[in-house]
Amino acid sequence: MQRVAFKMQLKPGFENEYKKRHDDIWPELSHALNHAGISDYSIFLDEESLTLFAVQKLSADNSAAELPQTEIVKKWWDYMADIMETNPDNSPVCIELKEMFFHE
């Protein structure tokens, strides 16, 4: 099992909307994440900087790298683009984070 973490940026004033949209995550997207081998996926918000911190576990045989090519993920990116910092294709600007410590 591999753990990965990354950060994204929320636009000011959209904290509640971001939470609402994720509370109502589409079943098709949830299925795609599970099918790709992603589990224990959490996103935290730093309320001072509006930085979103995400961490997830990937199975040994995961296909997470293929998710950006799926229609459901592209549709989600389009849905979220108005409240997050995004790239030209509406994917969120993600910065991978280096693991510095782990305690199980």
TrEMBL record:
Against NCBIfam families, the record matches this protein to: YiiL_rotase (TIGR02625)
UniProt-recorded name of the protein: L-rhamnose mutarotase
Keywords of this entry: Carbohydrate metabolism, Cytoplasm, Isomerase, Rhamnose metabolism
Q: Which Gene3D superfamilies match?
A: 3.30.70.100
Query: What superkingdom heads the lineage?
Result: Bacteria
Q: Which HAMAP family match?
A: L_rham_rotase
Give one Pfam family: rhaM
Single Gene Ontology MF annotation: L-rhamnose mutarotase activity
Note the InterPro entries from the entry. Dimeric_a/b-barrel (IPR011008), L-rhamnose_mutarotase (IPR013448), Rham/fucose_mutarotase (IPR008000)
Q: What is its EC number?
A: 5.1.3.32
Keyword Repeat assigned to the entry: answer is no
* SUPFAM superfamilies assigned to the protein according to its UniProt record, in alphabetical order: Dimeric alpha+beta barrel
